[in-house]
Design goal:
By secondary structure, this protein is mostly helical. About 85% of the residues lie in helices and about 0% in strands. The chain has one domain (about 5-55). The protein has 2 helices and no strands.
């Protein structure tokens, strides 16, 4: 049997804290602008990095 304070602490740790994290992530993702132009830029940058790493990797 756990003390009421312990049970309350567990409820906060396993309930409220993850909920706050989820809400925070939803807010961040809402304002994260990922349109077609940005996506194309990211894809091009990744392709350049991949080609560059293939050139510089030792065999």
């Amino acid at each position: 049997m756990q003390r009421p304070e312990t049970l309350q602490g567990l409820r906060i740790i396993f309930g409220i804290v993850p909920f706050i994290g989820i809400v925070f992530n939803i807010i961040v993702l809402y304002f994260y602008n990922l349109d077609d132009k940005t996506l194309d830029t990211i894809e091009n940058d990744l392709e350049k990095r991949k080609k560059q790493s293939l050139i510089t990797e030792p065999v």
